Predict the structure.
Amino acid sequence: MSGFSSEERAAPFTLEYRVFLKNEKGQYISPFHDIPIYADKDVFHMVVEVPRWSNAKMEIATKDPLNPIKQDVKKGKLRYVANLFPYKGYIWNYGAIPQTWEDPGHNDKHTGCCGDNDPIDVCEIGSKVCARGEIIRVKILGILAMIDEGETDWKVIAINVEDPDAANYNDINDVKRLKPGYLEATVDWFRRYKVPDGKPENQFAFNAEFKDKDFAVDIIKSTHDYWRALVTKKTDGKGISCMNTTVSESPFQCDPDAAKAIVDSLPPPCESACTIPTDVDKWFHHQKN
């Protein structure tokens, strides 16, 4: 068990919906800044934003205080990814590694593009469908260098250390061997997922080839360095909220009472008895409108 928990505010699939994270004491924290990047030696924490097979585009709200998870909005409408044939929604548990940041002011030497201004993304390939807001521990296996509308957008491939088959996966070649076609499907998905919204196909560095574990870990470590500069105000975040409760060298650190006041100012938690449409229902409604 990670010791972290989550709390939903307002109803899912609404503009007001938020998922806040708590530590083992039940105190509100930032999943961006307060969850350590490392869970153990060679093991990283992952914040699950989107469970596998779901369509709602959820993400850490980098500009909101305490950075809760919320559904992405474009032109006033909630965003859903299309079902790209033959896939259903996201084809992995999708999320981010905390305490990382792809700096938009840094031109990446591998891609020739600057960072996308978000924590680094992770595709977790294990057998369990994780929950939104769940914090899991993952082994890094490799990485894909995507270029999204001119921005560097690394996609880390990882597996939950609690997965029954985790011991069999130690590098990207193990994925190729044990899950034939999965990496090709991953490239295909990322290449085309914005096309139904009228966007061009995404591009990739390295001819869309996955780099190995060591390369991936080096990239993750570099984004951790960029995050450290951000949260200690050595880099201008230009609107990113660096409010945190644990980073002692950060001028943005606050006490747990201040964090609680942020959450208490929002709509109350959604009762479990609420009748909430699934994100699939919402997506079909979105497509028809």
Confidence is low (pLDDT under 50) at residues 272-278, 280-289. The first helix runs from residue 172 to 178. The radius of gyration is 18 Å.
